[in-house]
Amino acid sequence: MRLLLSILFAITAVLYYNQEYMFSRIAQLSKQIRPFTHNILSNSTRTMSTNGPSTTFHGLPVIPPSETFTTTAPRKIQKSFLAVEQSEGAGARVRRSIGTPQLKNFSPFLMLDHFAVPPGAGFPDHPHRGQETITYLMSGAIDHEDFAGNKGTIQEGDLQFMTAGRGIVHAEMPAQNTDGSPNVGMQLWVDLPKELKYTEPRYRDLRAKEIPEATADDGKVKVKVISGLSYGVESAKELAYTPVWLLDFKVQPGGTVKQSLPKGWNAFAYTLSGTTIFSSDGVSRPIEQYHNVVFDKEGDSIEASVEAGAEGEANFILVAGLPLDQPIVQYGPFVVNSRDEVMQAMMDYQSHSNGFERALNWESEIGKTMVH
């Protein structure tokens, strides 16, 4: 009977998630489990307003305490590619760069989507296990609701750090803007260390007003220090369990960025607007908007600039994360470490057990606003 329930759930997941969009961030489900298995060399906890008291934070420090940061050896570009826009869900548009044939198994990163969600689209009730998501809103608003009674809204400039842990079922519904404008932002999926795969789920909303900013190069460079360290300015702490730096740069014509990075961490940049020139060892490459730029692991920093004669500023996000030395087996919304754990996750969700107990007979209110 358990095997039958698993098969029925797998079939249901395929049908359901092909209709669901963006915030479930589900890689296309196939008719059989396709594991991604590999080994790689190796924030205050504030819950949403309706959550209970915060719990002890067990993540690693986002800024390595023993490291001296330098900018003497800028990293080379390993590869760069366009994130092609495509339709997904009910009228939504997405540029997916991580989690595609162009870039997989880039630990700790699982997926990156640059999304635009118009009124009428949305992401009704869906499960997760074993990962964290970071949602960064650039325009509009997103409502959230889950089976534990948590509710909230993030708006332009805000972020939500969600740890799915052992299990969460939630809904994320974009604002229905009266002028018909879409809700635009980024969502990044981050793997959890195997010892934290089954931690309790939690949220940390980071409001725009809480994000410190740094300036450099006579004001030609401005950076929102969302997570990490830039030009001596530190971010809020304990935002996510897996250490990730997330920096939002705006560079005026003639400006130059010299940004240190933790040694050995994987890093990439995503170009939101303008043309950014990335340089290393005397070699410079101009990168236009909507490209993912993957950097070599060797080096201590990245160097980026905008030509003095450029028509306008360039905007890019720089992301770095601690690689995790563990296998990845991802099946839709579940990111675990073995095939057996995938089967267990499906059975737990179907039987409302081992983290999914509260999913029984639960239905979000915001999910009911989905236009069919």
Automatic annotation (TrEMBL):
Domain annotation Pirin C-terminal: ranges: 247-354
Pfam families associated with the record: Pirin, Pirin_C
Pirin N-terminal domain residues: 92-190
Listed Gene3D superfamilies: Jelly Rolls
Record-stated family: Belongs to the pirin family.
Protein name: RmlC-like cupin
